[in-house]
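Data deposition worksheet. Section B asks for the primary sequence of the deposited chain exactly as it was used as input, without tags or linkers unless they were present during the calculation. Section C holds the resulting structure in token form. Section D is free text for depositor observations; keep each observation to a single sentence. Incomplete worksheets are returned to the depositor.
Section A, Depositor: J.P.
Section B:
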Amino acid sequence: MRPLSRRSALLLGGLGLAGTVTGGTGLALTLASQRSVPTAGADLQYPSVLQSSDGSLNVQLEAGGTSLLLAGRQASALAYNKEIPGPTLRIRPGDVLKIRLINNLSEPTNLHMHGLHVSPQGNGDNPFIRVDPGTAVDYEYRLPRDHPPGVYWYHPHHHGGVADQVFAGLYGAIIVEDPEATNAGLERILLVSDTTLDPLGNIHPASPMERMLGREGELLLVNGQLNPQLTAPPGDTERWRVINACASRHLRLRLDGQHVRLIGTDSGRLPLPVDTDELFLAPGNRADILVETVTGESVLLAAPYDRGSVRGMAGPGGSAGVPPAAATPLALLRVSGARKTSGTAVPAASEALDLRLSGVAAHRQLTFGTQMGMGMMGFTLNGKRFDPTRTDITASADTVEEWTLLNDSPMEHPFHLHIWPMQVTEVNDRMVKGVRLQDVVNVPANGRVKVRVSFADFTGRSVYHCHILDHEDLGMMGVIEVR
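Section C:
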């Protein structure tokens, strides 16, 4: 396995500097410690599927507490429709998606369609909606006819409780179908999440320290399972849709022994597939990959990753700047049997507009920071904590802006903008080749990223924030209004 180059690291995930984090030999040492194949659990299970027809999908999602198997244990968790992950919603460009959200929780919640390019107004993808316990809200989302196909997801977004609710099990996948069918042998949807269970099977609440650092659960799961197994014949081409649904954890994923090609990230399809050894997914990022199966057993690994720490505080690994000691097995792929011959499934990619060729209506800078108050640390953007009554940025419809995301802290911050995807143009003053549309962009510690945003199609108020969800809940979020 050749080491990941800096260029590939930038290419493969939210534009984070994965290649510079662990040092030259850290990954090789980690993989050497994982030579033995861990015992796999049960076969990988998939959530139920709700598919649109005749241009619409009408569904009901009930958010509530439930008892179910989680990580192979009976657990008390939160779930949509009593399953973790929640149902997979499969829709097409131009569809109307209607969701009745019923809140059977003991606290307020709401719903965010992460990555979808839809209106934030009214009962659309509106983060300011509050759904109180015992009530329901009818959401409606109208996808443009040219909406990018790809993998998206949904989760709560009521400020102050987002991290708790996602960590406890409230999340699910959205697939916007390709205009034309592909010939992949099998499609797998893999939602990677983490959580912590106490001895009684209850979700462990985060301590103030864990919230400030961004909680990372003791259990790393795929579709709610601990180290499940997958089986496939050799010579097949499978399509894997991978979602980082963790509240705070960055993922470096490897599937050694298999031929992996990246065909899309977040809402952006690559012009051509890219061979890859490693995927880097910041919280909220997604990857669309092709796996061409090779006979043998391969472990899907989450390699160690140091995302830094808050000044003066220990990092998630136990001390500042120290990642976990070994890679974590996520799933075991067993490839055996008669060879299957399948064509290479590569969905057609439309030409994306390079916003560097457009005029810029405004240049803005967003600076990530911390703030002490009432004996508790909070997080800020441009020195301000989130206030839903305040509008921080007013942009003009149908214009392009350039934003500089400045992070002078020793911890990385994945930056998420609702509704309008971002094109990353520079990372630490280095130009990014090609056009890559992301809705979560990882901003390196003590670094900067430049993005361009086209405020096309929709007007209204929405938000941007750090997708370490604890940091969002502690104030690292702002309000944008497009007029």
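Section D:
Confidence is low (pLDDT under 50) at residues 1-38, 315-322.
The chain has five helices and 32 strands.
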